[in-house]
Design brief:
SP1917_dom_sf, 7 helices, mainly alpha, Helicase, Ruva Protein, domain 3, DUF2200 domain-containing protein, UCP033199
């Protein structure tokens, strides 16, 4: 199984607790995390909970998401990959999410994270 397939099969539920731990360790909140996820995917808290309970794969998670049109403004390096150069659309979307969580944990201002203006 290659890198892209592994990412597609991973469940959002398996990664979500790590996202929470990462941001809370740096003094950010679960609410801020949800705000960031909702900005990217249009999923509200209720929908997120459903996806977690059904152990949706990242493939399914992003299949049903309405990606923010400004998501393409998310650039930079995450896990050693330059986001804007990732050719697999799903892998790129997962990395968008990783990058947003990273920025939140690093204390960036919310307007910057949400690519406002």
């Amino acid at each position: 199984m290659n890198h892209d397939e592994r990412i597609a099969q991973m469940t959002f539920a398996s990664v979500y607790p790590h996202y929470i731990a990462k941001v809370e360790k740096k003094g950010r909140t679960k609410e801020e995390l949800h705000q960031v996820i909702e900005w990217l995917t249009s999923y509200d808290e209720k929908k997120l909970q459903e996806l977690i309970e059904e152990k949706a794969s990242f493939e399914k998670f992003f299949q049903n998401a309405t990606l923010n049109p400004n998501a393409r403004l998310i650039t930079g390096v995450i896990c050693g990959y330059r986001i804007e150069e990732i050719t697999n659309p799903l892998t790129q979307q997962v990395r968008y999410l990783d990058k947003l969580v990273d920025e939140l944990a690093k204390g960036r201002k919310m307007e910057k994270i949400l690519r406002v203006g």
